[in-house]
Design goal:
254 residues; mainly alpha; 11 helices; 52% helix; DNA-binding; Homeodomain-like_sf (chains A, B)
DNA sequence: ACAACGTATCTACACTGTAGACCTTAGACG
DNA sequence: CGTCTAAGGTCTACAGTGTAGATACGTTGT
């Protein structure tokens, strides 16, 4: 082996008789849809949802689509584009809360919508949080930015300035991300164990150094995502309401 | 260093590691430091800090240490362990605010400390946020949990219940993470441009769909991380203070 | 001296993303 | 009808990845 391939040397006519699939079956066009970008990304998303991020390799994705590996490069010029496409696709699913309610409940619903979406695609969450960091606003696909603009509009309509709205958005989304990271965390170590401390593996922590964390075992055991999210939202909304233009009667401490 | 295919030709001639200018201690080849786990991780961290996460490959890391690739497996049995080790190392640098002040300013300092640490290792932030998700509390290295326990102690000492403290921690850390993701984001697209809209690339967004975001160009341009962080902390602390045991009948703004 | 043992290295392998050349097909145009 | 063009699809090849298994090395205990 190890023949160094001199460029452009051997030109062997290759019959390519590999017929693993009946190509002459032109009467059945069901499998021969022209493979659009949407379809590639949708399949990638399905794959990630089903088997995790590591399962998303180009060869695997190509097999899933019944096409050659290199075909995919037409629809996602490199790996980053593929990941960004998945993010785009998922964010497109996000339903924005409709109008007709006060801004606090709209923010609440917004958060819960996002949470539900994230839980529906847990393996994509890491992408959702980290991919946009590498891309400036102006270069992101508009579908990715629609939730942001919606948020800004919601708050400015409520009376906040655009700058305030942007800052609130950062705090809001930040909290949301953090909540999801916490919620998606694997906490259970020994599922069969009945004692909370043992089930969560907290017994391995030195009692002297982690008394409080260990004492929280029962509370960590009956974690309720919705309740936790609402608690955090209470905090944030209280803070936001405090600087709301309509609450000027109370005065703002410097 | 040209890659060759013929196996076993010019090996065995390497009595001491090639003095390839190891960064830490570039001196006599007799220096046979036994290559502890600390040193491996420290080198990995330095590598990531200098060239980003993608530069961290085992071969590269081995070269950096002047050792064989397989040696590293003794100190980090697989890639995940290597990444977790880096997280551990970075979190070990985090200085926890000392006592002697009210809990609000301690929380504030805590956040700023973390921010400073993250900015010192921007390429590790993604790891910092996402790695722990895969590991249950009980299985994490204690160094990773010390900040958490410290936080819990801080808040319980301030009068909160342990459960409240845990929830506040989630909201707090969540916001902090989100803030960092926002701050580390690449915003500038055309550094030479003088007009904010163009420099941030926001001109590429359809004006009809993104009026507010586009109008924020000047504000996004003079982003100040400390100021932004403090704004978010204001929000959160206002909310937290509102549920503080001592503020039972007093009300929050005053 | 010998054996034992932790450490370090070599070789090999399966798998990854991707470049570049090649083939196939559909339509445009004479 | 035949030919041209271009986009879509495929093949082969290659450099680079993490890692298993066997092998060499260096120190130490007896």
């Amino acid at each position: 082996m190890t023949t160094k391939s001199t460029p452009g040397s051997d030109t062997t006519a290759r019959p390519s008789g590999q017929a693993d699939r009946s190509t002459d079956d032109a009467a059945a066009p069901t499998e021969r849809v022209p493979l659009t970008r949407q379809r590639v990304l949708a399949t990638a998303l399905r794959l990630v949802d089903a088997e995790g991020l590591d399962a998303l390799t180009r060869r695997r994705l190509a097999r899933e689509l019944g096409r050659d590996v290199m075909t995919l490069y037409r629809y996602a010029p490199d790996q980053a584009a593929l990941l960004d496409g998945i993010v785009e696709l998922v964010l497109d699913e996000l339903e924005l809360p409709d109008e007709g309610q006060d801004w606090q409940t709209r923010l609440r619903r917004s958060a819960h919508n996002f949470r539900r979406l994230a839980l529906a695609h847990p393996h994509v969450v890491n992408l959702l949080l980290t991919r946009p960091v590498a891309t400036a606003f102006g270069l992101r696909p508009p579908a990715t930015l629609r939730p942001l603009e919606h948020f800004l509009e919601l708050l400015t309509t409520a009376g906040f300035s655009a700058v305030e709205a942007m800052r609130i958005h950062r705090a809001f989304v930040g909290f949301l991300y953090g909540h999801l990271l916490a919620e998606l965390q694997d906490t259970v170590v020994n599922p069969d164990e009945t004692e909370d401390l043992l089930r969560l593996g907290l017994h391995q922590l030195p009692p002297r150094q982690f008394p409080i964390l260990r004492s929280l075992a029962p509370d960590l055991a009956d974690y309720d995502g919705v309740r936790e999210l609402d608690f955090g939202l209470d905090l944030l909304l209280a803070g936001i309401t405090a600087i709301h233009p309509d609450s000027t009667s109370e005065g703002k401490a410097g």
